[in-house]
Fold:
Amino acid sequence: MSSSAPSLRLELGHARLSATLILEPDAPTSELSESLVVAFLEERGLAPDPDRLPRIRQLLAEQAAAPAARHSCIVAEGFPPKDGVDGRFEFDPALSEHPTVPAPSDSEAPAHTDHYASRIGMTVREGAVLGRVIPPVDGFDGFDVFGNCIAARPARPSSIKHDDTIELASDGRMLVKVGGIVVTTPGTIRVNPTLEINGNVDFSTGSVDFPGDVLVQGSVRDCFTVKAGRDLTVNHLVDGATLAATRDCTLRHGMASKDRHTLNVGRHLAAKYLSGVECHVGGCATIESDISHCLLHVKGELSSPACSVVHGELHAGVGCDVAELGSTAGVETAVIVASEDRSAAYVERAEHLLHLVQTRLDRTSERLKDLRSVHGRMTSSQADALTELSFESEHLETATSRLKQSLDRLRGLREGSLNIGVTVRTAIHPGTRISIASWKVTFRETVPGPVRLWLNPSGALEFTNPDTSQVLPTPTGALVEKPQAALPPLQQAA
Amino acid sequence: MRILLVDDSKTMRNIQKAVLAQLGHTEILEACDGQDALSRAPAFRPELMLVDWNMPNMDGLTFVKTWRQTNKQTPIIMVTTEAEKSRVIDAIKAGVNNYVVKPFTPDLLSQRIQETLAKCGASAAA
Structure:
């Protein structure tokens, strides 16, 4: 862009941020003067500039020295605007080191590569800092050679959107509210609390350690580990793998391991079968068909009326209901129920404590009665003693009432725990040992079902028919060992 | 709230502490007589004081009189066996805000504390 007089020309730079005065060759020197040039530039509307005059003089001097040449100089400069910087989201640097491992190159995999390492993507735990929203930074306006404003582009806040799995703190930190896998799409970020693996857990996925629910549509292969922060579901087979679920675990088929791989479940377990597994269940377990060669610890109840238990050890906190124990081949099969029942000891302790408190309360009440019967004006020490005793009496009454409530609850619990037992629907085979609390029964011959072994309210072991509750005689093939100190009967505790 | 307990009986201080804890007050300083209280109170700057009358070294009444020479605001409850009317008037004149006569129940002490705090809080606000 340029504007000109006969021998003067003004050329504007990009965005009018500079103006160059050009003196054409052979311009008539006599006509050119400082005031003419200044008038020319003012006429063009250039913003005033005190530094301009010396430059004009310099230009005219150069032109006078070499009139045949073309001369130019910058006579005005604007100021470019600085655009605002938009707000943005940045991942926490610590997360970049998280195992978001892409599939390694097959040909150049280093020798130390852990082929079992996770490849499931960026996972985050509840409470973790996912990243930070950087606020926008404002720019500033510029101006052109005519003094006109050139507006800076305003800064926009970060447009990233998140759902309620993420919380934006007032300081801009994005905090993970629900553990899971980070899912990003253009402009959005969220955490998916469920990890669904459409195939198998194998070398394509690596081992899985996920803070939320895990659903494996395929199988879990040998030597891989799957840890779920909440529920774990596997729809096909589990080989000799290691599984852990903080809450429930469902194995739609089963788990078969040769080397006693472990299965740890925080709450309840449901599986078709277990074979060669060391399993710990925090709640109750339901196994559909078989438990073989397992070490199984169930804190609650094993409720599996169609399941055969062959070889190994089964520990159940409350009791179990199974189809068959042991096998006709006489393999050693142990069932241990309620081995950790300490309710009797707690009841005894609470009763003792209540007795102590009650005695003290009686004594305090008696002294209070004596002091209150004092006639006339009380001495200072009597008044002090009366105050102390009334406080103590109130404190002891509260303690007595709380202890009685606790004792009632403990007795209720104990009554519940006395209802524990082992129910076998089809048969108990030789080689089977059953322990209920301190009672032990060893089976030398097959005992046909249905049969239930349980502790009656007086703490004695009984054989009954679970369908009719009819008490059965102790089978001839069952050797019963009485405990040295059985639980005291409930009547005594009451 | 900072509360100073002045009583020569440790058991009585414990009882008062238990009542105060039930009312949600846990910032408590104990003194075993008036002299001990005078040496500790300025640094502690109590917002309520429970003072016994009969104590060795310096009794509660002398303590209250001395304290009131420099501090007119701190609410003071006298906890004592001195129930005679003339004695109560002496205590009020010395600058005591409320009075609890032994033997007392936890409920009574709790009621007096709340009363005193409400009254003194209201007058401070006015």
Summary: Chain A is about 20% helix and 40% strand. Chain A touches chain B at residues 378-380, 383-384, 386-388, 390-391, 394 (CB under 8 Å). Residues 380-417 of chain A form the longest helix (38 residues).
